[in-house]
Structure formats: C-alpha cells, structure tokens
Amino acid sequence: MSDEKDLKRPRINLTRTLPKPNPYALAIDNEYKDIAFNEERAPLNKGLWRKQVFKVDDSVPLDVEVGTGSGMHFAFHAKNHPNRCLVGLELKYKPLIQSIRRAKAAGGVYNAICRYHAFNLDLLFAENEINNVYIHFPDPWVSPRKERNRVVNRQILNDIYKMQKPGSFIEFKTDSREYFLWALDEIKETPYKIEFQTLDLYNEDNEYKEKNFQTGFEKIFVNQGIEINYIKLIK
Q1: pTM (2 d.p.)
Q2: Residue 180: phi, psi to the nearest 5?
Q3: Which of 46, 81, 88, 192 has a beta carbon 3.0–4.6 Å from 233's, enabling a disulfide?
Q4: How far apart are CA 144 and CA 104, in angstroms?
C-alpha cells in the first residue's frame, strides 16, 4: 500500500508516452542515453550512481544541481571540478539537453542529467550517497501563493540531509525576498547549520560574492538592481 508521501508525489508525463517527441526528448534515450536519464530510468541508479553511471569508487564526491536551467552553472561546475561527479535535475527537455551538452563541451568527465522532479529526490538517491547540493533560482511560487510547491521546504531539506555525507553543503539562491524569508523559517525545522546568509549578496562585504558564479537569471536580476538572497547550509 502506498504511504501518504507517495500519494502526494507530483506526476509528470512520461517521455516514452509523448505523441510527438521533439529532438531534445529523443536525445535523452538515444544520443545521450548513457548520461541522460528519463523519469523511468533515473531512479534505477539510486545508490549506484558512482558505480553504475560514473564507474568510480565511493571516495569520489557526488554533487547534485536541482533545476539546471540551460546549464550555465552545470557546465561551470563540470569544468572547474573535473574530479567530482555531478547529477543535474531538469524537467524541460531543451534545457536538459543543453545542460549536458554544455558540460561535455566544457570538458566535464563525470556528469549526468535526469528528467526528474525535485520533490521525488528520495527516489533518486540513497542515504549518505551525495555531497553538495545547488538550488539556484527555483520557481518562487508567489503569484498566486502556492508555498506547497516550493522546493526549499522542510520536508525536502530533511530528505536531502539524510542523502548527504557529513560536511556537505546546500547552496540556495533566489531573487524572491518573500520566498527566502519563508525558506528561513523552514530551515529552522531542519538539522542544518547556517554557514552564511545574506539578503543582498553583492552589496555586502563577504567572500561568497567573490566565489559566486552568476547564472543567466542572476545576471539579469543583478543588472536590474534586484538583490540576491543567498544561504549556505552545512550538514
């Protein structure tokens, strides 16, 4: 019998049932089938990402990016951390394929992408399997107000905490002050420790803005004078 959590899981269309799949949808199970996984194949790697997908031992770090968008940060990570594995999650077909293409073009070695919903992360990774997690500019769900759809919530954070190895971090950035303040209350209900947080990443004197990689959305927001909310959580 399904538990309450299973009954509340979001449903997405299956790639194999698309009546007219576009070239990006087709690429998941053809051109990039070894490093791009549809919603049915992705969970088969749970607990086996290092061994089955990347062919490395358990000592190699495995990071996760939730919502890669067009893959700018995904490719940056692939290029600058070639000895770390990276799995990205994205629902839209075009940015999903753009992300893995950019990572490969940047010289990435251990990179994979999944068409998977962030609310189902516990079906994708086992306890103590992953390291750092990046959540950059997710949908803030502020109009209309639908907080239950926000990715950074106590349930998902507590799930990620179990999946992460000790010493790992979550990096969360958003342009939505409303979402960020709401998320801070959610974070209080988790075991995470806050290493650093700010309501205005670029107008405060801190080391994090110097290390920060600007995503495409972030550049637009910064150029418009919108303050970037940032927090780094440590397990």
Answers
A1: 0.95
A2: -65, -45
A3: 192
A4: 38
pLDDT of 10 reads: 86
* CATH fold label, 4-234: Rossmann fold (3.40.50)
Q: Which of 5-14, 19-28, 139-148 shows the highest mean pLDDT? A: 19-28
Exposed / middle / buried, residue 153 (Cβ in 10 Å: 0-12, 13-18, 19+): buried
Which helix or strand (DSSP H or E) is residue 208 part of?
A: helix 208-211
- Verify whether residue 139 is a known catalytic residue: yes
Do 133 and 160 contact (CB within 8 A), yes or no?
yes
End-to-end Cα spacing for the chain:
33
Q: Is the pLDDT of residue 175 over 70?
A: yes
Element (H, E) at 122: none
pLDDT of residue 144: 81
**Position 235, amino acid:** K
Pairing status of strand 229-234 against strand 169-174: antiparallel
pLDDT at residue 8 is higher than 80? no
Rounded CA-CA distance 128/163 in Å is 4
Catalytic residue among 29, 63, 122, 139: 139
In the chain, where are the structural domains located? 4-234
- Residues 57, 51: Cα–Cα separation, whole Å: 6
Task: Decide if pLDDT at 157 tops 60.
Answer: yes
Residues 28, 114: Cα–Cα separation, whole Å: 9
Q: Tell me the helices (H) and strands (E) count for the chain, helix number first.
A: 8, 8
8 A C-beta contact, residue 232 and residue 225: no
